[in-house]
Design goal:
Helix content is 8%, strand content 33%. With 199 residues, the chain is mainly beta.
């Protein structure tokens, strides 16, 4: 028996707004002050034994590694990736319509009184991605991309391939006979950008 548990990373944008219509006061340089923690896959992708549906309120972000990951597109195509690095981030609620080469990210403070901080994905990766890299051959961006933005490949990736989605990304943990047997990320379409290719 195969059981799948899911979480959707909610797509969203608006550059320096707050959750309660207040203007955020953090300067652009504060991207460097954001943490980019390594997490367990259950924490990063909001898998829990009692969850049977998408968690639309999940705000955890960071990175993790898996022994195996499957990318699945809307046509049922699948790509198996051994030992990839997953970068889990959240898009803001309203992506600017003209933003076609980047994604606005949203970072929520544990304190409800704090303003929500927004930053561009390209800037976040420029500052933080290198610190998370290891011996993996593939880096997967688990972040929604409602504008189908064509993302540039960060130079810090070196020879690694980058995989990113169009539209929402749904994460499914597959269990066989009650035991975890894999993780799948579903999206309308997956793009793979290698070191010798353009976006």
């Amino acid at each position: 028996m195969v059981v799948a548990l899911a979480v959707r990373r909610v797509a969203a944008a608006g550059l320096w707004s707050s959750a309660r219509s207040r203007v955020a006061q953090r300067p652009p340089g504060a991207v460097a002050d954001l943490a980019f923690p390594r997490r367990g896959v259950d924490d990063l992708l909001a898998f829990a034994p009692e969850r049977e549906d998408l968690d639309l309120d999940h705000e955890t972000y960071g990175h993790c590694r898996l022994d195996q990951l499957t990318l699945v597109d809307a046509m049922g195509g699948q790509v198996e990736l051994p030992v990839p690095l997953i970068v889990g981030l959240h898009g803001a609620d309203d992506q600017p319509p003209g933003l076609t080469d980047d994604i606005v990210l949203e970072f929520c403070s544990p304190r409800a009184s704090d303003p929500v901080f927004h930053a561009l994905l390209s800037r976040f990766l420029e500052v933080h991605l290198a610190s998370a890299l290891g011996n993996e051959h593939d880096v997967v961006l688990a972040v929604c991309n409602p504008n189908a933005a064509r993302l540039a490949r960060p130079t810090s990736l070196g020879p690694r391939a980058m995989h990113y989605a169009e539209g929402p990304v749904d994460a499914w943990r597959v269990e066989t006979d009650g035991l975890p047997s894999g993780v799948r990320l579903h999206a309308r379409r997956w793009h793979t950008v290698r070191a010798d290719e353009a976006t």
